[in-house]
Amino acid sequence: MVANFLRAPMNEKKVLKLKAEIHILKDQCKGCGFCIHYCPKKVLEESDEINARGVHPPRVVDEKNCILCSFCTAVCPDFAIFVRGKQCMDGC
Amino acid sequence: MAGAFEHPFAVYLRAAMIPHIWCSGCGNGVILNAFIHALDELRMDLDKFVVVSGIGCIGRTAGYTNVDSFHTTHGRAIPFATGVKLAKPELEVVVISGDGDLFAIGGNHFIHAARRNIGIKVICANNFNYGMTGGQVGPTTPLEALTTTTPYGNVEHPFNLVHLATASGATYVARWTTLHVRMLTMSIKKLLQRKGFSFIEVVSPCPEIYGRRNNMRTGLEMMEWFRKASVIANFSDPAKAEITPEKIVVGEFVDIEKPTYEQLLYGKIAKIVKKE
Prior knowledge:
The complex is a heterodimer of chains A (92) and B (276). Chain A is α+β, with helices and mostly antiparallel strands and 92 residues long. Chain A has a single domain (23-88), classed as Alpha-Beta Plaits (2-Layer Sandwich). Chain A is built from three helices and four strands, in the order αβαββαβ. Chain A has helices at 2-5, 34-38, 71-75; strands at 18-24, 44-46, 58-60, 81-87. With 276 residues, chain B is an alpha/beta fold. Chain B has a single domain (10-275), classed as Rossmann fold, CATH 3.40.50. Chain B contains nine helices and ten strands. An eight-stranded mixed sheet of chain B has the order 2-1-3-4-8-7-10-9, sandwiched between helices. In chain B, strands 5-6 form a two-stranded antiparallel ribbon. In chain B, a hairpin with a 5-residue loop joins β5 and β6 (136-137).
């Protein structure tokens, strides 16, 4: 019930939200874990696979939760992750 | 690996040199990332841009950025940058170097460059020790910190770099940690748009050399220390901006305007030439 009274923009349903595309360059990653730990929406987690440098690169848990803040891009010391916003044509 | 490298910042980096040699969890990559972020947002003319760096881990930045760059001798990054700036005042000269390079062997060059107000921009990565040579005690090592040459705890008082820069006459002084990437990028953008001598100290994690002797084994643990300890105090007194295990005072400290050395010098030369 409470959710009905929460304030929201009137055109929220009409506006096409950007869809996040998270690109991880796995073999660049050195496994410091900054992107996983400081993601505000906890979109990333450590994967089981081992990359060319012998560490576990991050893996995307749920791309839909990403809010495109790009903090992972900014905090990555190895230029191994970046996020792009994509307008989805099909109304996703 | 160069073919698979498709990061949006790839144009600013030399593909042959990437991936860089810095350790996992090192803050130098974050500083390079913030610097390139600022370059990208400002759309700087890269043909008029020079990066100068000294010796130390962060000294390799000159090799990684895809602009005209100098990798100079130990402690002499600022003299090289001064020469570049005076020969061609239209160039944008940025010095990116470490605390050992800029403040131990190059300490005098720093204070006199700040006193003259030469229009060069200095970004200093402060990792509290001499990381590249094995973790000896340096001019910024906090009291009681353990390093390879102080196994019972450091007994020397450290430099307060922002206070030193302010007292020497720098026109823009700021300190951030590598966790404050957005503020750091904003500060670097401000730095690149200024005329006079500007200085940013970046407190940077060094987990492999400094951290593991001080109960912080990973870069993440050092970043957590920054998150818990840092206090933002913009335009507060830099003399009180201390770095202790409990408190790291960050923020912008000085933002003033002064005539720069190259303006005064070339103005003087023009006056003398006119008289004759």
